[in-house]
Amino acid sequence: MTPFVSDLDRDTLVRAIDRHRKETALDWADVPGARVEERPGYLLVLSGYRVPWSNNVVSSALSELEADHVIEECVAALRAAGVPATWTVSPLSTPADLADRLTARGFRVEESIPWMAAGLGEVPVSTTPKGLTIERVTDGTLHRGWLTAMDRGFGMEPETVRMLDEIGAAASFDPDAPWVRFAGFVDGRPVASSGLLLHGGVAGLFNVATLPAFRRRGYGRAMTLAALDHARSLGFRVAVLGTSDLGRGVYERLGFRDVCTTRGYVLHVDPPRSPRPPRPTRAYPLRRAR
């Protein structure tokens, strides 16, 4: 298990975020039908789903001499698999002109993600607004509530919903598993969600969504704090997250501050000509936090 990060200086946090992303990517090796290739300087993840962020290249610390060859190898693998993919460029990615090399081979920047961090000792303890009930996902029924809130809160694509349904329904529900999810209910109706990915010595906050009709009631804040309370109870000292303009204000008021920005370069490829066989549906445990 990676030791807990407690230092909040920028260089430490940038390295922790990079490590967090790498260890999270490694969990795809436990997903039936997925493929993870770990090579010096980078990871290639092929989930098999046509969801760009589930097929990706991470921790790409490449030399100037090898970068073009590695990019060409990865592009060939993605085209053979027939899946779109995201190559994330972080402050630690090398060579310095990696982004230019990616765009020269068909990748296009589609997202810039500001990463923020906060010391959990400074984050408020959770409080739950009247009428909202927060449940940690411990079974298939709660998983479906979590997924419904995610789908309707974010307006996700059908393939993304299918992917999250399949991997979420089969994932471990243990409280110390690296992926922990929470669903928020009002009168039995799922209206909000949040989740944690516990990797790289930090608690990564993800999956925070609220149905449009239930926004501005403090539900997003409550779901965030419920997840961070859980991380704190496990001994984590620092939380990180990738934010959007919609959520930035909430996180700043909770004590999160900017650390760095990563950029996702996406390669869109044609799907395979022949249909893929059905994916395995057996249950599998996601790797526990290291």
What is the element string, with H for helices and E for strands? HEEEHEHEEHHEEEHEHE
Rg, rounded, reads: 19 Å
Query: What is the level 1 CATH name of the largest domain?
Result: Alpha Beta
**CATH architecture title of the largest domain:** 3-Layer(aba) Sandwich
Helix content range of the residues, please? 25-40%
Order of strands across the widest beta sheet? 1-2-3-4-11-5-10-9-8-7-6
What does this structure look like?
This protein is α+β, with helices and mostly antiparallel strands. The protein has two domains: 10-114 and 263-267, no CATH class; 118-260, Aminopeptidase, CATH 3.40.630.30. 32% of the residues lie in helices and 27% in strands. The protein is built from seven helices and eleven strands. Mean pLDDT is 91; it is low at 281-290.
Quick rundown:
The chain is an alpha+beta fold. It is 32% helix and 27% strand.
In terms of topology, how is this protein built?
Blueprint lengths: L9 H17 L8 E5 L2 E5 L9 E3 L5 H18 L3 E5 L8 H7 L3 E12 L12 E5 L3 H15 L3 H13 L8 E8 L2 E11 L2 E9 L8 H15 L4 E5 L2 H9 L3 E11 L23
Helix pairs in contact: 4-5
Summary keywords:
Aminopeptidase, 2 domains, single chain, 290 residues, eleven-stranded mixed β-sheet, disordered C terminus
